[in-house]
UniProtKB/TrEMBL annotation:
Protein name per UniProt: Aldo/keto reductase
Key words of the record: Oxidoreductase
Organism: Mucilaginibacter boryungensis
Domain NADP-dependent oxidoreductase positions: 17-308
Database matches in Pfam families: Aldo_ket_red
Lineage, highest ranks first: Bacteria, Pseudomonadati, Bacteroidota, Sphingobacteriia, Sphingobacteriales
Keyword 4Fe-4S belongs to the record: no
CDD domains reported in the protein's UniProt record: AKR_AKR9A_9B
Domain of life: Bacteria
Amino acid sequence: MKYKLLGRSGLKVSEFCLGTMGFGTDNGWGADAAVSFAIMDEFANAGGNFLDTANVYQKGTSEKIIGDYLINQDRDYFVLATKYTLKDNQTNPNASGNNRKNMMRSIEESLKRLKTDFIDVLYLHIWDDITPIDEVLRGLDDLIRQGKVNYAAISDTPAWVVAKGNILAELMGWSQFIALQVEYSLLQRTPERELIPMAKHFGMTVTPWAPLAGGALTGKYLKGEKGRIKPESNRLNENSERITKVIMAIADELGVSAGNVALQWMRQQAFSCIPIVGATKIEQLQDNLNTVDLTLSADHLKKIDDISAVSLGFPGDFFREENVKLNSFGGFYDRVEKR
């Protein structure tokens, strides 16, 4: 793998991030420690250095497994990302949320489980719609100044909140968010409405979770395989089947897997993107990493876009109209002939 800069920083990360939500079996599924170690070895041997976890993954076991693994590795080779927000115990009313108290408590617990002195990238996991964004940013900046965290990032948060946060951080001299983690795939393109344009504007790298829509885009469910996706999920409806069949047809034409096509479509979009590829089996990771050798043609991209594009809503669709152009001087929309 090659390396890319993460957002507006000098941090070099591999072009895929290894998702570790399946490290551990505390939730009734996942990979045990031995398999998890083997997956991380495979990832590192392929040049991967970017690991993604969270305090709540497998009830904390994911962080513990990574910590046990890193003891015998070059810690500085890896870029370790974790998250805080979601409840990881029942000790007190502030054991969840974006507040400073939970942030400080969570980071200390994560550092213990990960057996490390610092976290490379700390994500706010999900917006709680309660805590002021300035409280979050000041807390993250304090952790960075203390050396316990190197970079701040944010996940699953409205675009306007992230934008307000980065502008406030710039004005106050605090550390800005360098990465945005959201659900994004060919079956979930709604982040194209506000989140992705916002990230592109601020120079943030998008790190999509579920880039294969829980495995739906690999075509395995159409082949009769079973998984953790519920039958009523929008990942298994008629629209998702239409999209997946197109992906499978392109994959057959190119002699690659459907997952490779779905991942490469994402990597060829016009913004900085590092997909998070989860794996509980080495074969899954190996197949995902084959994507680095694939390039989709303009025809392939158009065919995929035609079957999967979503409405941008207002004002996105309004901007798309060919006969409408923004008159930046008058501050109003003026219908003009397209040149």
